[in-house]
Protein backbone atom coordinates (compact mmCIF):
# COMPACT_ATOMS: atom_id res chain seq x y z
CA UNK A 1 0.00 0.00 0.00
CA UNK A 2 2.93 2.35 0.63
CA UNK A 3 3.96 1.81 -2.99
CA UNK A 4 0.45 2.66 -4.17
CA UNK A 5 0.45 5.86 -2.11
CA UNK A 6 3.81 6.76 -3.59
CA UNK A 7 2.59 6.13 -7.14
CA UNK A 8 -0.58 8.20 -6.58
CA UNK A 9 1.39 11.09 -5.07
CA UNK A 10 3.96 10.99 -7.87
CA UNK A 11 1.27 10.93 -10.57
CA UNK A 12 -0.55 13.87 -9.00
CA UNK A 13 2.65 15.85 -8.76
CA UNK A 14 3.56 15.04 -12.36
CA UNK A 15 0.06 16.03 -13.47
CA UNK A 16 0.40 19.44 -11.83
CA UNK A 17 3.91 20.02 -13.18
CA UNK A 18 3.34 18.77 -16.72
CA UNK A 19 -0.16 20.19 -16.97
CA UNK A 20 0.85 23.69 -15.94
CA UNK A 21 3.94 23.65 -18.11
CA UNK A 22 1.70 22.73 -21.05
CA UNK A 23 -1.21 25.08 -20.38
CA UNK A 24 0.54 28.03 -18.76
CA UNK A 25 1.70 30.88 -21.01
CA UNK A 26 5.36 30.83 -21.95
CA UNK A 27 6.86 34.19 -20.99
CA UNK A 28 10.32 35.41 -21.73
CA UNK A 29 12.29 36.85 -18.85
CA UNK A 30 12.11 40.24 -20.49
CA UNK A 31 8.33 40.16 -20.38
CA UNK A 32 8.38 39.08 -16.76
CA UNK A 33 10.94 41.68 -15.77
CA UNK A 34 8.94 44.45 -17.38
CA UNK A 35 5.68 43.15 -15.88
CA UNK A 36 4.12 44.43 -19.07
CA UNK A 37 0.55 43.92 -20.11
CA UNK A 38 1.18 45.05 -23.66
CA UNK A 39 1.95 42.85 -26.65
CA UNK A 40 4.95 43.16 -28.93
CA UNK A 41 4.57 45.78 -31.60
CA UNK A 42 4.80 44.82 -35.23
CA UNK A 43 5.04 46.66 -38.53
CA UNK A 44 1.70 48.09 -39.73
CA UNK A 45 0.41 47.55 -43.24
CA UNK A 46 2.61 49.32 -45.76
CA UNK A 47 -0.23 51.31 -47.25
CA UNK A 48 -2.39 51.69 -44.15
CA UNK A 49 -5.11 49.74 -45.95
CA UNK A 50 -8.65 49.50 -44.75
CA UNK A 51 -11.52 47.39 -45.95
CA UNK A 52 -14.43 48.85 -47.80
CA UNK A 53 -16.92 46.10 -46.85
CA UNK A 54 -16.56 43.92 -43.80
CA UNK A 55 -18.86 40.99 -43.74
CA UNK A 56 -20.18 37.84 -45.33
CA UNK A 57 -21.51 38.11 -48.85
CA UNK A 58 -20.12 41.58 -49.53
CA UNK A 59 -17.03 42.26 -51.58
CA UNK A 60 -14.16 43.99 -49.82
CA UNK A 61 -11.39 45.83 -51.55
CA UNK A 62 -8.70 47.68 -49.58
CA UNK A 63 -8.88 51.47 -49.78
CA UNK A 64 -5.80 53.59 -49.12
CA UNK A 65 -6.12 55.96 -46.17
CA UNK A 66 -4.02 59.12 -46.03
CA UNK A 67 -2.05 59.85 -42.85
CA UNK A 68 -4.15 61.46 -40.09
CA UNK A 69 -4.23 65.23 -39.88
CA UNK A 70 -4.79 67.24 -36.71
CA UNK A 71 -7.68 69.20 -38.25
CA UNK A 72 -9.62 65.98 -38.95
CA UNK A 73 -9.51 64.89 -35.30
CA UNK A 74 -12.38 65.24 -32.82
CA UNK A 75 -11.01 64.99 -29.24
CA UNK A 76 -12.49 62.56 -26.69
CA UNK A 77 -12.30 63.66 -23.05
CA UNK A 78 -14.10 61.24 -20.72
CA UNK A 79 -13.48 60.19 -17.09
CA UNK A 80 -11.88 56.84 -17.97
CA UNK A 81 -10.56 57.40 -21.50
CA UNK A 82 -9.01 60.04 -23.71
CA UNK A 83 -8.27 60.13 -27.42
CA UNK A 84 -9.93 61.25 -30.63
CA UNK A 85 -12.21 60.27 -33.48
CA UNK A 86 -10.88 60.52 -37.01
CA UNK A 87 -13.34 62.68 -38.98
CA UNK A 88 -11.78 61.28 -42.13
CA UNK A 89 -13.83 58.09 -42.33
CA UNK A 90 -15.51 58.57 -38.89
CA UNK A 91 -13.31 55.96 -37.27
CA UNK A 92 -12.87 55.41 -33.57
CA UNK A 93 -9.13 54.76 -33.69
CA UNK A 94 -7.32 56.67 -30.96
CA UNK A 95 -7.84 55.93 -27.27
CA UNK A 96 -5.89 55.42 -24.06
CA UNK A 97 -7.18 54.21 -20.69
CA UNK A 98 -6.57 56.77 -17.94
CA UNK A 99 -6.54 54.26 -15.06
CA UNK A 100 -4.20 51.63 -16.54
CA UNK A 101 -0.49 51.73 -17.29
CA UNK A 102 1.73 49.36 -19.21
CA UNK A 103 3.92 48.50 -16.19
CA UNK A 104 4.05 49.20 -12.47
CA UNK A 105 6.99 51.56 -12.94
CA UNK A 106 6.39 55.21 -12.10
CA UNK A 107 5.73 57.24 -15.23
CA UNK A 108 4.82 54.18 -17.29
CA UNK A 109 2.68 55.07 -20.35
CA UNK A 110 -1.06 54.60 -20.18
CA UNK A 111 -2.43 51.54 -21.95
CA UNK A 112 -3.44 52.38 -25.52
CA UNK A 113 -6.38 50.29 -26.63
CA UNK A 114 -7.17 51.87 -30.03
CA UNK A 115 -4.60 52.93 -32.63
CA UNK A 116 -4.77 54.37 -36.13
CA UNK A 117 -3.93 52.46 -39.29
CA UNK A 118 -0.55 54.22 -39.36
CA UNK A 119 0.46 53.28 -35.81
CA UNK A 120 2.47 50.16 -34.89
CA UNK A 121 -0.60 48.27 -33.62
CA UNK A 122 -3.63 49.37 -35.71
CA UNK A 123 -6.86 48.61 -33.85
CA UNK A 124 -9.99 50.60 -34.62
CA UNK A 125 -13.78 50.57 -34.97
CA UNK A 126 -15.69 51.45 -38.12
CA UNK A 127 -19.38 52.36 -38.40
CA UNK A 128 -21.12 52.58 -41.75
CA UNK A 129 -23.75 51.56 -44.32
CA UNK A 130 -23.65 49.16 -47.24
CA UNK A 131 -25.67 49.38 -50.46
CA UNK A 132 -28.04 46.79 -51.80
CA UNK A 133 -26.27 44.64 -54.39
CA UNK A 134 -26.13 46.87 -57.45
CA UNK A 135 -27.30 49.89 -55.45
CA UNK A 136 -26.25 53.34 -56.64
CA UNK A 137 -26.58 55.34 -53.42
CA UNK A 138 -23.34 57.05 -52.53
CA UNK A 139 -22.46 55.93 -48.99
CA UNK A 140 -19.65 57.16 -46.70
CA UNK A 141 -16.26 55.50 -47.11
CA UNK A 142 -12.63 55.89 -46.02
CA UNK A 143 -12.28 59.19 -47.90
CA UNK A 144 -15.40 60.80 -46.44
CA UNK A 145 -14.74 63.92 -44.35
CA UNK A 146 -17.38 64.29 -41.66
CA UNK A 147 -18.34 67.50 -39.88
CA UNK A 148 -19.00 67.70 -36.14
CA UNK A 149 -21.49 69.88 -34.27
CA UNK A 150 -19.22 70.14 -31.19
CA UNK A 151 -15.49 70.71 -30.58
CA UNK A 152 -15.08 67.49 -28.56
CA UNK A 153 -16.84 64.43 -27.17
CA UNK A 154 -17.33 64.27 -23.40
CA UNK A 155 -19.47 62.18 -21.06
CA UNK A 156 -21.84 65.13 -20.70
CA UNK A 157 -21.98 66.26 -24.33
CA UNK A 158 -22.60 63.83 -27.23
CA UNK A 159 -21.52 64.83 -30.73
CA UNK A 160 -23.23 64.47 -34.08
CA UNK A 161 -21.14 63.74 -37.17
CA UNK A 162 -22.78 64.67 -40.47
CA UNK A 163 -22.14 64.14 -44.18
CA UNK A 164 -24.22 65.06 -47.22
CA UNK A 165 -23.68 62.72 -50.16
CA UNK A 166 -24.73 65.36 -52.70
CA UNK A 167 -27.65 63.21 -53.85
CA UNK A 168 -30.16 64.41 -51.29
CA UNK A 169 -29.15 61.92 -48.60
CA UNK A 170 -27.69 63.08 -45.28
CA UNK A 171 -25.88 60.60 -43.06
CA UNK A 172 -25.44 61.27 -39.36
CA UNK A 173 -23.65 59.39 -36.58
CA UNK A 174 -24.59 60.48 -33.06
CA UNK A 175 -21.86 59.41 -30.61
CA UNK A 176 -22.02 59.53 -26.82
CA UNK A 177 -19.84 57.98 -24.11
CA UNK A 178 -20.60 57.10 -20.51
CA UNK A 179 -18.35 57.44 -17.46
CA UNK A 180 -16.49 54.24 -18.36
CA UNK A 181 -15.82 52.55 -21.73
CA UNK A 182 -19.16 52.27 -23.51
CA UNK A 183 -20.03 54.35 -26.58
CA UNK A 184 -23.66 54.68 -27.71
CA UNK A 185 -23.99 55.00 -31.50
CA UNK A 186 -27.07 56.18 -33.42
CA UNK A 187 -26.80 55.86 -37.20
CA UNK A 188 -29.28 58.16 -38.93
CA UNK A 189 -30.16 58.47 -42.61
CA UNK A 190 -32.30 61.38 -43.81
CA UNK A 191 -33.65 60.82 -47.31
CA UNK A 192 -34.40 63.92 -49.38
CA UNK A 193 -33.61 62.30 -52.72
CA UNK A 194 -37.21 62.00 -53.87
CA UNK A 195 -37.19 58.20 -53.96
CA UNK A 196 -36.94 55.45 -51.32
CA UNK A 197 -33.59 53.92 -50.58
CA UNK A 198 -32.41 50.76 -48.80
CA UNK A 199 -29.18 50.41 -46.84
CA UNK A 200 -27.55 47.88 -44.53
CA UNK A 201 -26.03 49.39 -41.35
CA UNK A 202 -22.90 47.67 -40.06
CA UNK A 203 -20.23 47.98 -37.38
CA UNK A 204 -16.94 46.17 -37.06
CA UNK A 205 -13.60 45.99 -35.27
CA UNK A 206 -10.49 46.00 -37.47
CA UNK A 207 -7.09 44.87 -36.25
CA UNK A 208 -4.29 45.30 -38.78
CA UNK A 209 -1.57 43.38 -36.96
CA UNK A 210 -1.11 39.97 -35.41
CA UNK A 211 -0.40 40.34 -31.69
CA UNK A 212 1.85 38.09 -29.67
CA UNK A 213 -0.59 36.01 -27.65
CA UNK A 214 0.48 36.04 -24.00
CA UNK A 215 -2.04 33.68 -22.47
CA UNK A 216 -1.22 30.34 -24.07
CA UNK A 217 -4.02 27.88 -23.43
CA UNK A 218 -4.98 29.60 -20.21
CA UNK A 219 -6.86 32.57 -21.68
CA UNK A 220 -8.45 33.20 -25.06
CA UNK A 221 -7.09 36.07 -27.12
CA UNK A 222 -8.56 36.93 -30.51
CA UNK A 223 -12.02 37.03 -32.14
CA UNK A 224 -14.92 36.43 -29.77
CA UNK A 225 -18.70 36.67 -30.00
CA UNK A 226 -21.98 35.69 -28.43
CA UNK A 227 -24.85 35.27 -30.89
CA UNK A 228 -28.15 33.63 -29.92
CA UNK A 229 -26.66 32.81 -26.54
CA UNK A 230 -23.74 30.83 -27.96
CA UNK A 231 -20.14 31.80 -27.28
CA UNK A 232 -17.65 31.46 -30.13
CA UNK A 233 -13.90 31.92 -29.72
CA UNK A 234 -11.60 31.70 -32.72
CA UNK A 235 -7.87 32.14 -33.15
CA UNK A 236 -6.01 34.52 -35.44
CA UNK A 237 -4.63 31.50 -37.26
CA UNK A 238 -8.15 30.20 -37.92
CA UNK A 239 -9.07 33.50 -39.55
CA UNK A 240 -5.93 33.56 -41.68
CA UNK A 241 -6.35 30.01 -42.94
CA UNK A 242 -10.15 29.99 -43.14
CA UNK A 243 -10.90 33.29 -44.89
CA UNK A 244 -12.19 32.65 -48.39
CA UNK A 245 -12.56 35.23 -51.17
CA UNK A 246 -14.32 37.26 -52.35
CA UNK A 247 -15.81 38.19 -48.97
CA UNK A 248 -12.72 36.95 -47.08
CA UNK A 249 -15.01 35.48 -44.42
CA UNK A 250 -13.74 32.74 -42.09
CA UNK A 251 -16.85 32.35 -39.92
CA UNK A 252 -20.37 33.76 -39.82
CA UNK A 253 -23.57 33.22 -37.88
CA UNK A 254 -27.03 34.72 -38.20
CA UNK A 255 -29.02 35.60 -35.10
CA UNK A 256 -30.69 38.32 -33.12
CA UNK A 257 -28.59 40.82 -31.20
CA UNK A 258 -25.51 39.61 -29.34
CA UNK A 259 -22.03 41.09 -29.47
CA UNK A 260 -18.69 40.49 -31.19
CA UNK A 261 -15.16 41.84 -31.03
CA UNK A 262 -11.50 41.14 -30.49
CA UNK A 263 -10.28 40.39 -27.00
CA UNK A 264 -6.87 40.55 -25.40
CA UNK A 265 -5.92 39.21 -22.01
CA UNK A 266 -7.22 42.27 -20.14
CA UNK A 267 -8.81 44.45 -22.86
CA UNK A 268 -11.77 44.19 -25.18
CA UNK A 269 -12.92 46.05 -28.28
CA UNK A 270 -16.44 44.97 -29.24
CA UNK A 271 -19.41 46.10 -31.30
CA UNK A 272 -22.91 45.50 -29.93
CA UNK A 273 -25.86 45.75 -32.33
CA UNK A 274 -29.40 46.70 -31.47
CA UNK A 275 -30.54 43.67 -29.49
CA UNK A 276 -33.91 43.28 -31.24
CA UNK A 277 -32.32 43.40 -34.72
CA UNK A 278 -31.66 40.36 -36.88
CA UNK A 279 -27.97 40.48 -37.79
CA UNK A 280 -25.20 38.38 -39.24
CA UNK A 281 -21.99 38.29 -37.27
CA UNK A 282 -18.77 37.28 -38.95
CA UNK A 283 -15.00 37.00 -38.64
CA UNK A 284 -12.82 37.77 -41.63
CA UNK A 285 -9.23 38.34 -42.71
CA UNK A 286 -7.79 40.32 -45.59
CA UNK A 287 -4.25 39.61 -46.61
CA UNK A 288 -2.20 42.47 -48.01
CA UNK A 289 1.40 43.58 -48.32
CA UNK A 290 1.55 44.27 -44.57
CA UNK A 291 0.36 42.21 -41.64
CA UNK A 292 -3.18 41.76 -42.95
CA UNK A 293 -6.46 42.92 -41.41
CA UNK A 294 -8.62 40.90 -39.02
CA UNK A 295 -12.29 41.96 -39.08
CA UNK A 296 -14.99 41.09 -36.57
CA UNK A 297 -18.44 42.64 -36.67
CA UNK A 298 -22.13 42.68 -37.59
CA UNK A 299 -24.29 43.65 -40.54
CA UNK A 300 -28.10 43.85 -40.54
CA UNK A 301 -29.83 40.92 -42.23
CA UNK A 302 -32.61 43.12 -43.60
CA UNK A 303 -32.03 46.45 -45.30
CA UNK A 304 -33.27 49.60 -43.60
CA UNK A 305 -35.79 51.18 -45.98
CA UNK A 306 -35.91 54.98 -45.81
CA UNK A 307 -38.86 56.57 -47.54
CA UNK A 308 -38.44 59.88 -49.33
CA UNK A 309 -38.62 62.71 -46.80
CA UNK A 310 -38.13 60.33 -43.86
CA UNK A 311 -35.32 59.65 -41.39
CA UNK A 312 -34.34 56.16 -40.20
CA UNK A 313 -32.26 55.50 -37.09
CA UNK A 314 -30.37 52.39 -36.01
CA UNK A 315 -28.83 52.15 -32.52
CA UNK A 316 -25.78 50.18 -31.41
CA UNK A 317 -22.94 50.31 -28.89
CA UNK A 318 -19.17 50.05 -28.93
CA UNK A 319 -17.13 48.87 -25.96
CA UNK A 320 -13.43 49.69 -25.86
CA UNK A 321 -11.79 49.24 -22.49
CA UNK A 322 -10.75 47.08 -19.58
CA UNK A 323 -12.54 43.79 -18.87
CA UNK A 324 -13.59 44.69 -15.34
CA UNK A 325 -15.91 41.90 -14.21
CA UNK A 326 -18.35 44.04 -12.25
CA UNK A 327 -18.58 46.60 -15.06
CA UNK A 328 -19.25 43.96 -17.73
CA UNK A 329 -22.01 42.48 -15.61
CA UNK A 330 -23.59 45.91 -15.08
CA UNK A 331 -23.59 46.51 -18.84
CA UNK A 332 -25.09 43.07 -19.34
CA UNK A 333 -27.96 43.97 -17.01
CA UNK A 334 -28.57 47.59 -18.08
CA UNK A 335 -28.13 47.17 -21.86
CA UNK A 336 -29.39 43.56 -22.03
CA UNK A 337 -26.18 42.34 -23.65
CA UNK A 338 -26.26 38.53 -23.53
CA UNK A 339 -23.43 36.87 -21.58
CA UNK A 340 -21.20 39.93 -21.73
CA UNK A 341 -19.30 38.62 -18.69
CA UNK A 342 -17.91 35.84 -20.91
CA UNK A 343 -15.47 38.38 -22.34
CA UNK A 344 -13.47 37.36 -19.26
CA UNK A 345 -12.27 33.83 -19.92
CA UNK A 346 -13.29 32.03 -16.73
CA UNK A 347 -13.09 28.79 -18.70
CA UNK A 348 -14.94 25.49 -18.51
CA UNK A 349 -14.94 25.64 -14.71
CA UNK A 350 -16.61 29.08 -14.63
CA UNK A 351 -19.16 27.66 -12.18
CA UNK A 352 -16.28 27.47 -9.68
CA UNK A 353 -13.82 30.08 -11.02
CA UNK A 354 -16.34 32.95 -10.91
CA UNK A 355 -17.49 32.37 -7.30
CA UNK A 356 -13.86 32.16 -6.17
CA UNK A 357 -13.19 35.48 -7.89
CA UNK A 358 -16.25 37.06 -6.23
CA UNK A 359 -15.03 35.93 -2.81
CA UNK A 360 -11.51 37.26 -3.47
CA UNK A 361 -12.86 40.55 -4.80
CA UNK A 362 -15.14 40.96 -1.77
CA UNK A 363 -12.28 40.19 0.61
CA UNK A 364 -10.09 42.70 -1.24
CA UNK A 365 -12.79 45.35 -0.82
CA UNK A 366 -12.99 44.48 2.85
CA UNK A 367 -9.24 44.32 3.55
CA UNK A 368 -7.88 46.72 0.95
CA UNK A 369 -5.16 44.36 -0.29
CA UNK A 370 -5.42 41.38 -2.62
CA UNK A 371 -2.54 39.64 -0.85
CA UNK A 372 -4.43 39.80 2.44
CA UNK A 373 -7.55 38.71 0.56
CA UNK A 374 -5.67 35.61 -0.63
CA UNK A 375 -4.66 34.82 2.94
CA UNK A 376 -8.20 35.28 4.21
CA UNK A 377 -9.45 33.10 1.36
CA UNK A 378 -7.00 30.41 2.45
CA UNK A 379 -8.52 30.46 5.92
CA UNK A 380 -11.97 29.99 4.40
CA UNK A 381 -10.74 27.07 2.29
CA UNK A 382 -9.07 25.45 5.31
CA UNK A 383 -12.30 25.80 7.29
CA UNK A 384 -14.30 24.29 4.41
CA UNK A 385 -11.99 21.28 4.09
CA UNK A 386 -11.33 20.89 7.82
CA UNK A 387 -13.30 17.62 8.21
CA UNK A 388 -11.40 16.02 5.33
CA UNK A 389 -8.08 17.34 6.63
CA UNK A 390 -8.81 15.96 10.10
CA UNK A 391 -9.39 12.50 8.66
CA UNK A 392 -6.24 12.84 6.56
CA UNK A 393 -4.00 13.85 9.47
CA UNK A 394 -5.45 11.21 11.77
CA UNK A 395 -4.72 8.58 9.13
CA UNK A 396 -1.21 9.95 8.60
CA UNK A 397 -0.57 10.03 12.34
CA UNK A 398 -1.59 6.42 12.69
CA UNK A 399 0.54 5.51 9.70
CA UNK A 400 3.53 7.09 11.41
CA UNK A 401 2.85 5.02 14.55
CA UNK A 402 2.57 1.88 12.46
CA UNK A 403 5.89 2.30 10.66
CA UNK A 404 7.86 -0.08 12.97
CA UNK A 405 5.20 -2.77 12.57
CA UNK A 406 5.08 -2.27 8.80
CA UNK A 407 8.87 -2.59 8.67
CA UNK A 408 8.73 -5.78 10.69
CA UNK A 409 6.15 -7.24 8.32
CA UNK A 410 8.30 -6.36 5.33
CA UNK A 411 11.26 -8.12 6.85
CA UNK A 412 9.27 -11.17 7.90
CA UNK A 413 7.52 -11.68 4.54
CA UNK A 414 10.12 -10.25 2.17
CA UNK A 415 10.08 -13.48 0.15
CA UNK A 416 6.28 -13.76 -0.01
CA UNK A 417 4.73 -10.62 -1.49
CA UNK A 418 1.16 -11.93 -1.31
CA UNK A 419 1.42 -12.88 2.35
CA UNK A 420 3.04 -9.53 3.16
CA UNK A 421 0.19 -7.64 1.48
CA UNK A 422 -2.40 -9.71 3.32
CA UNK A 423 -0.73 -9.09 6.69
CA UNK A 424 -0.39 -5.35 6.00
CA UNK A 425 -4.06 -5.12 5.00
CA UNK A 426 -4.99 -6.94 8.21
CA UNK A 427 -2.85 -4.51 10.20
CA UNK A 428 -4.42 -1.45 8.54
CA UNK A 429 -7.92 -2.87 9.08
CA UNK A 430 -7.25 -3.65 12.72
CA UNK A 431 -5.95 -0.10 13.29
CA UNK A 432 -8.74 1.51 11.29
CA UNK A 433 -6.28 3.10 8.84
CA UNK A 434 -6.92 3.78 5.14
CA UNK A 435 -3.59 4.58 3.44
CA UNK A 436 -5.36 6.14 0.44
CA UNK A 437 -7.33 8.62 2.57
CA UNK A 438 -4.33 10.93 2.73
CA UNK A 439 -4.63 11.61 -1.02
CA UNK A 440 -8.31 12.63 -0.97
CA UNK A 441 -7.89 16.20 0.35
CA UNK A 442 -5.11 16.76 -2.22
CA UNK A 443 -7.40 15.61 -5.05
CA UNK A 444 -10.32 17.74 -3.83
CA UNK A 445 -8.18 20.88 -3.62
CA UNK A 446 -6.74 20.57 -7.16
CA UNK A 447 -9.81 22.32 -8.73
CA UNK A 448 -9.48 25.13 -6.18
CA UNK A 449 -5.79 25.46 -7.04
CA UNK A 450 -6.56 25.61 -10.77
CA UNK A 451 -9.40 28.12 -10.43
CA UNK A 452 -7.36 30.35 -8.14
CA UNK A 453 -4.47 30.28 -10.60
CA UNK A 454 -6.80 31.18 -13.46
CA UNK A 455 -8.37 34.04 -11.50
CA UNK A 456 -4.92 35.42 -10.70
CA UNK A 457 -3.91 35.26 -14.33
CA UNK A 458 -6.98 36.41 -16.28
CA UNK A 459 -8.74 39.05 -14.17
CA UNK A 460 -7.66 42.65 -14.53
CA UNK A 461 -8.62 43.31 -10.91
CA UNK A 462 -5.45 41.43 -9.88
CA UNK A 463 -3.24 43.02 -12.56
CA UNK A 464 -0.63 45.24 -10.87
CA UNK A 465 -2.25 44.56 -7.47
CA UNK A 466 0.49 45.11 -4.87
CA UNK A 467 1.23 43.19 -1.69
CA UNK A 468 3.91 44.28 0.78
CA UNK A 469 7.64 44.80 0.37
CA UNK A 470 9.00 44.06 -3.07
CA UNK A 471 5.81 42.49 -4.48
CA UNK A 472 4.20 45.16 -6.67
CA UNK A 473 2.12 42.86 -8.87
CA UNK A 474 0.48 39.72 -7.51
CA UNK A 475 -0.24 38.51 -11.05
CA UNK A 476 3.49 38.50 -11.94
CA UNK A 477 6.29 36.25 -10.62
CA UNK A 478 8.55 37.29 -7.75
CA UNK A 479 11.37 39.08 -9.56
CA UNK A 480 14.00 38.80 -6.82
CA UNK A 481 16.69 36.23 -7.60
CA UNK A 482 18.89 34.06 -5.41
CA UNK A 483 21.45 33.66 -8.18
CA UNK A 484 22.44 37.32 -8.15
CA UNK A 485 22.13 37.53 -4.34
CA UNK A 486 18.79 39.32 -4.68
CA UNK A 487 20.21 42.22 -6.67
CA UNK A 488 23.54 42.68 -4.92
CA UNK A 489 25.35 41.42 -8.03
CA UNK A 490 24.54 43.49 -11.17
CA UNK A 491 23.91 40.47 -13.35
CA UNK A 492 20.84 38.79 -14.84
CA UNK A 493 21.24 34.99 -14.51
CA UNK A 494 18.22 34.33 -16.73
CA UNK A 495 20.23 35.31 -19.81
CA UNK A 496 21.81 31.86 -19.41
CA UNK A 497 18.54 30.04 -18.64
CA UNK A 498 15.02 31.09 -17.62
CA UNK A 499 15.22 28.44 -14.89
CA UNK A 500 17.82 30.58 -13.10
CA UNK A 501 15.01 32.68 -11.68
CA UNK A 502 14.44 31.91 -8.01
CA UNK A 503 12.81 34.57 -5.88
CA UNK A 504 12.34 34.89 -2.13
CA UNK A 505 8.72 33.75 -2.01
CA UNK A 506 9.33 30.57 -4.05
CA UNK A 507 12.23 29.74 -1.70
CA UNK A 508 9.92 30.24 1.29
CA UNK A 509 7.39 27.99 -0.39
CA UNK A 510 10.02 25.26 -0.87
CA UNK A 511 11.08 25.57 2.77
CA UNK A 512 7.50 25.20 4.04
CA UNK A 513 6.99 22.20 1.76
CA UNK A 514 10.17 20.59 3.12
CA UNK A 515 9.14 21.12 6.75
CA UNK A 516 5.67 19.83 5.99
CA UNK A 517 7.17 16.63 4.60
CA UNK A 518 9.01 16.07 7.85
CA UNK A 519 5.71 16.00 9.69
CA UNK A 520 4.40 13.20 7.46
CA UNK A 521 5.28 9.50 7.67
CA UNK A 522 8.47 8.75 5.78
CA UNK A 523 8.37 6.26 2.92
CA UNK A 524 9.90 2.90 3.72
CA UNK A 525 11.51 2.46 0.31
CA UNK A 526 14.80 4.43 0.05
CA UNK A 527 14.03 5.27 -3.62
CA UNK A 528 10.69 6.73 -2.57
CA UNK A 529 12.37 8.72 0.18
CA UNK A 530 14.81 10.26 -2.28
CA UNK A 531 11.98 11.11 -4.65
CA UNK A 532 9.98 12.83 -1.93
CA UNK A 533 13.08 14.73 -0.79
CA UNK A 534 13.55 16.00 -4.34
CA UNK A 535 9.98 17.24 -4.72
CA UNK A 536 10.40 20.48 -2.65
CA UNK A 537 13.34 21.45 -4.88
CA UNK A 538 11.39 20.73 -8.09
CA UNK A 539 8.32 22.62 -6.90
CA UNK A 540 10.44 25.55 -5.74
CA UNK A 541 11.76 26.08 -9.26
CA UNK A 542 8.33 25.45 -10.74
CA UNK A 543 6.62 28.01 -8.49
CA UNK A 544 9.34 30.57 -9.27
CA UNK A 545 7.64 31.11 -12.64
CA UNK A 546 4.10 31.38 -11.24
CA UNK A 547 2.23 34.52 -10.14
CA UNK A 548 3.55 35.66 -6.78
CA UNK A 549 -0.01 35.75 -5.44
CA UNK A 550 -0.30 32.02 -6.00
CA UNK A 551 3.05 31.38 -4.27
CA UNK A 552 2.00 33.51 -1.29
CA UNK A 553 -1.26 31.59 -1.12
CA UNK A 554 0.54 28.25 -0.98
CA UNK A 555 3.15 29.38 1.53
CA UNK A 556 0.38 30.54 3.84
CA UNK A 557 -1.60 27.37 3.12
CA UNK A 558 1.40 25.19 4.03
CA UNK A 559 1.88 27.07 7.31
CA UNK A 560 -1.79 26.67 8.22
CA UNK A 561 -1.68 23.00 7.22
CA UNK A 562 1.33 22.36 9.47
CA UNK A 563 -0.33 24.14 12.40
CA UNK A 564 -3.48 22.11 11.86
CA UNK A 565 -1.50 18.90 11.57
CA UNK A 566 0.48 19.53 14.77
CA UNK A 567 -2.72 20.31 16.65
CA UNK A 568 -4.44 17.12 15.50
CA UNK A 569 -1.34 15.01 16.16
CA UNK A 570 -1.11 16.45 19.67
CA UNK A 571 -4.72 15.52 20.32
CA UNK A 572 -4.14 12.05 18.89
CA UNK A 573 -1.02 11.39 20.92
CA UNK A 574 -2.91 10.42 24.05
CA UNK A 575 -5.37 8.29 22.07
CA UNK A 576 -2.61 6.34 20.33
CA UNK A 577 -0.66 5.77 23.54
CA UNK A 578 -3.77 4.17 25.10
CA UNK A 579 -4.27 1.82 22.13
CA UNK A 580 -3.15 -1.77 22.91
CA UNK A 581 -0.06 -2.85 21.03
CA UNK A 582 -0.51 -5.19 18.09
CA UNK A 583 2.06 -7.87 17.26
CA UNK A 584 4.13 -7.33 14.13
CA UNK A 585 2.34 -10.24 12.45
CA UNK A 586 -0.83 -8.20 12.45
CA UNK A 587 -2.67 -10.84 14.61
CA UNK A 588 -4.17 -10.00 17.97
From TrEMBL:
<keyword id="KW-1133">Transmembrane helix</keyword>
<keyword id="KW-0812">Transmembrane</keyword>
<keyword id="KW-0472">Membrane</keyword>
<keyword id="KW-0143">Chaperone</keyword>
<dbReference type="Pfam" id="PF02096">
    <property type="entry name" value="60KD_IMP"/>
</dbReference>
<keyword id="KW-0813">Transport</keyword>
<feature type="compositionally biased region" description="Polar residues">
    <location>
        <begin position="31"/>
        <end position="45"/>
    </location>
</feature>
<dbReference type="GO" id="GO:0005886">
    <property type="term" value="C:plasma membrane"/>
</dbReference>
<feature type="transmembrane region" description="Helical">
    <location>
        <begin position="535"/>
        <end position="556"/>
    </location>
</feature>
<dbReference type="InterPro" id="IPR001708">
    <property type="entry name" value="YidC/ALB3/OXA1/COX18"/>
</dbReference>
<comment type="subunit">
    <text>Interacts with the Sec translocase complex via SecD. Specifically interacts with transmembrane segments of nascent integral membrane proteins during membrane integration.</text>
</comment>
<feature type="transmembrane region" description="Helical">
    <location>
        <begin position="6"/>
        <end position="24"/>
    </location>
</feature>
<dbReference type="GO" id="GO:0032977">
    <property type="term" value="F:membrane insertase activity"/>
</dbReference>
<dbReference type="InterPro" id="IPR028055">
    <property type="entry name" value="YidC/Oxa/ALB_C"/>
</dbReference>
<dbReference type="Pfam" id="PF14849">
    <property type="entry name" value="YidC_periplas"/>
</dbReference>
<feature type="domain" description="Membrane insertase YidC/Oxa/ALB C-terminal">
    <location>
        <begin position="370"/>
        <end position="569"/>
    </location>
</feature>
<feature type="region of interest" description="Disordered">
    <location>
        <begin position="31"/>
        <end position="75"/>
    </location>
</feature>
<feature type="domain" description="Membrane insertase YidC N-terminal">
    <location>
        <begin position="73"/>
        <end position="358"/>
    </location>
</feature>
<comment type="function">
    <text>Required for the insertion and/or proper folding and/or complex formation of integral membrane proteins into the membrane. Involved in integration of membrane proteins that insert both dependently and independently of the Sec translocase complex, as well as at least some lipoproteins. Aids folding of multispanning membrane proteins.</text>
</comment>
<protein>
    <recommendedName>
        <fullName>Membrane protein insertase YidC</fullName>
    </recommendedName>
</protein>
<feature type="transmembrane region" description="Helical">
    <location>
        <begin position="495"/>
        <end position="515"/>
    </location>
</feature>
<dbReference type="GO" id="GO:0015031">
    <property type="term" value="P:protein transport"/>
</dbReference>
<feature type="transmembrane region" description="Helical">
    <location>
        <begin position="366"/>
        <end position="390"/>
    </location>
</feature>
<dbReference type="InterPro" id="IPR047196">
    <property type="entry name" value="YidC_ALB_C"/>
</dbReference>
<comment type="similarity">
    <text>Belongs to the OXA1/ALB3/YidC family. Type 1 subfamily.</text>
</comment>
<dbReference type="InterPro" id="IPR028053">
    <property type="entry name" value="Membr_insert_YidC_N"/>
</dbReference>
<keyword id="KW-1003">Cell membrane</keyword>
<dbReference type="InterPro" id="IPR019998">
    <property type="entry name" value="Membr_insert_YidC"/>
</dbReference>
<dbReference type="GO" id="GO:0051205">
    <property type="term" value="P:protein insertion into membrane"/>
</dbReference>
<keyword id="KW-0653">Protein transport</keyword>
<dbReference type="InterPro" id="IPR038221">
    <property type="entry name" value="YidC_periplasmic_sf"/>
</dbReference>
